[in-house]
Amino acid sequence: MKTLLTGGAGYIGSHTAVAMLEAGHEVAVVDNYVNSSAEAISRVEKITGKKVSLYDADVADKESMMEILSAEMPDCIIHFAGLKAVGESVAMPVEYYRNNIDTTLTLLECMRELGLSNIVFSSSATVYGEDHIPPFTEDATKGMCTNPYGWTKWMQEQMLTDAQFSSEASDGSANTANGWKTPLSVVLLRYFNPVGAHESGLIGEDPQGIPNNLMPYISQVAVGRRDHLTVFGNDYDTPDGTCRRDYIHVMDLAEGHVKAAEYADTHKGTEVFNLGTGSPYSVLEMVDAFGRACGHAVAYEIGARRAGDVQDSWADASKAKAVLGWEASRGIDEICRDAWNWQSHNPQGYNKTGL
Ligand code: NAD
Ligand code: WQD
User: Fold this and answer.
1) Average pLDDT value for residue range 323-348
2) What's the start-to-end Cα distance of the chain, in Å?
């Protein structure tokens, strides 16, 4: 299968490129490097020994995307491109709505004009809002998001669902009256907390500036780039008082995309899957596990709760297992081992040296 990964030079996209190539699929990547480096793709090629077609373009730019998509005519688009920092989205909502919504609308317009049918979308467990008690199942109603980033995911899911509905006539054929050449197949993937790195240590998460997320922060403390972690609250109603999350190894997530793209190729309609492990760990359990992996304790202090944090979030991952035949196989020790391998060999991420 020929796949095109928007945002494929980013953290999850680059790992998915490896999994796709290893599963025997072709990979093209479109990225504007707003939060990544082309070096990631060179390393994907090094890991796999296979070539990636790489395009430097803004996915919101229709002219560029029409040119790239008509040249590639992929069997499946996997849409990772987007801005993803929750705090930044509160400060810069206009940029977040413009970028995240526009990339999806441009892709849908191009797909309609070119007769491309399959799209897999990077959504997030954030769409469940705060209304549910975990584990979250896919049929839980989407909740009220706590930040503009979350709303962009919520809205993109809706836009893709509505476009799929309009693309399919009642007999299952393309709804040509609505301008579609083929009925769409849309797969919405709701990721829980992606962490870890490829086991080679050649690719991993490379956040710009001070990390917002737990695992890259712990990694940078462990490698000596930062003094200590601040644990955001230890007065939650959990066994050790810290929040619990469903941390999923990024290579498990990547393999989930292979299954999702293969599913999209053989089905029509809109389908949504949680990609998580179903097992929650607390902040302090993650700190301990990382200490075991790197061979020394990770310094931390207890701080105040972070605004917008939910106490508990984890997946009911049974639908992906039943329908896609996928389940996560790596646990927190592999996660921390691989995150440490990446961080200790690339202390400043891609294209940089020294601490
Ligand atoms: P990332 O920032 O590493 O990757 C996103 C990539 O998209 C980057 O390479 C960036 O340069 C590119 N990009 C952004 N806007 C673009 C545009 N207009 N044109 C071309 N390229 C563009 O982020 P990631 O962690 O790999 O996340 C990938 C996707 O998964 C995002 O949509 C994100 O919202 C979603 N997601 C991530 C997480 C997470 O915790 N990492 C969780 C749930 C969902
Ligand atoms: C995990 C836990 C923090 C940093 C975010 C987005 C979500 C999704 C995944 C994209 C929480 C605690 C963190 C620190 C800490 N992204 N923590 N000290 O908030 O579950 O999810 O990333 O879709 O939308 O909101 O992940 O890694 O930021 O936090 O104590 O310095 O670690 O309070 O309990 P989160 P996270």
Assistant:
1) 97
2) 41
